[in-house]
Design brief:
- By secondary structure, the chain is of the alpha/beta class.
- Helix content is about 25%, strand content about 30%.
- The chain has seven helices and 13 strands.
- Strands 1, 2, 3, 4, 6, 7, 8, 9, 10, 11 and 12 form an eleven-stranded mixed beta sheet that branches.
- Helix 1 links the parallel strand 1 and strand 2.
- The longest helix has 15 residues.
- The two termini are about 35 Å apart.
């Protein structure tokens, strides 16, 4: 068991290419002092007891990340970089191997229980408070997922991909399914799966990759990624998704993952048109006093 949250590391998955967005989402300025979404996540994490930041990127991105982002908060928290490479990828592949592999890329820098998030999603202060509080009590073979209502996570400017959660009566994660092309339609919220439409409710709980884990998960992740590589059928396209690896951990290792429901609305950059909406909503939060106009100065 942990003694305190003062040693908590936050792993930020930031190596994605943002193909639908058409640019490097992680560096898109949205705040009044040109803050990016990552600035707000780190600010909220520090207020919730985290004191070490590990950012997973592609190696060629480090100089730009240091200049554009991390120089602003390096005086406030320890920051390290980990590189997601293609060393283990099939020959000829140019695309990163997915969020599960990104987390595995940071494993050597993690010494205990930890959290993992996306760089291009905004989770809100109460979500990090739920996460930090849960990690105070984490033990071996256990984890926590902060889940969101699907209706709070849609883009008005195009479809999104989400991991749909199944939860037991005791609040434990029992299943997870990655769905793509989710959007509102005249028939409600519709996802496309294997050529068929599937209708979902606004209250369906989904993962946005806001996780907390015991260190046991990293050992499992290494072995599970090897299985993924050996079973690939489309080596140039398939990705090793973190939500899928978590469910594998539950089903193969008898791990337990508690699900906590965040009421926060989602802010993110899936499509280029999302930028104006995200900036406007951040401005509203600043006007309400949730964040200062200048986070780090």
């Amino acid at each position: 068991m942990r003694k305190s949250v003062n040693e908590l590391a936050l792993v930020i998955l930031a190596a994605g290419l943002g193909s639908r967005y058409g640019g490097i989402k992680q560096m898109e300025g949205l705040g009044p002092s040109d803050e990016v979404l990552l600035d707000y996540s780190i600010y909220d994490a520090l207020r919730s007891g985290f004191d070490k930041i590990i950012i997973v990127i592609q190696e060629q991105m480090e100089e730009a990340f240091r200049e554009r982002i991390t120089r602003r908060f390096e005086d406030h928290v320890a920051v390290e970089f980990a590189y997601q490479t293609l060393d283990q990828a099939p020959e000829g592949r140019e695309k990163p191997m997915g969020t599960g592999h990104a987390l595995l890329s940071a494993s050597s820098k993690i010494q205990g229980p930890f959290a993992a998030i996306n760089a291009d999603d905004f989770y809100g202060p109460s979500s990090f408070q739920l996460l930090g509080g849960s990690l105070q009590h984490i033990d071996s073979k256990s984890g926590v997922l902060i889940a969101f209502s699907l209706g709070n996570t849609l883009s008005e400017h195009g479809s999104v991909s989400r991991a749909i959660c199944e939860i037991s009566g005791e609040g434990q994660l029992t299943g997870i399914e990655e769905l793509t092309k989710i959007a509102r339609s005249e028939n409600g919220i519709v996802a496309h799966l294997a050529g068929k439409d599937r209708t979902l409710s606004d209250e369906t709980l989904v993962s946005l990759n806001l996780w907390g884990f015991s260190q046991d998960f990293l050992s499992f992740l290494q072995e599970d990624f090897k299985r993924f590589l050996s079973n690939m059928t489309q080596p140039m396209k398939e990705e090793y998704y973190l939500p899928v690896s978590v469910f594998n951990w539950i089903s193969r290792s008898a791990a337990t993952v508690s699900v906590k429901h965040s009421q926060e609305p989602w802010l993110g950059l899936t499509n280029r048109e999302d930028r104006a909406d995200a900036a406007a909503r951040l401005s509203q939060l600043i006007d309400r006093g949730v964040y200062p106009k200048r986070l780090w100065f």
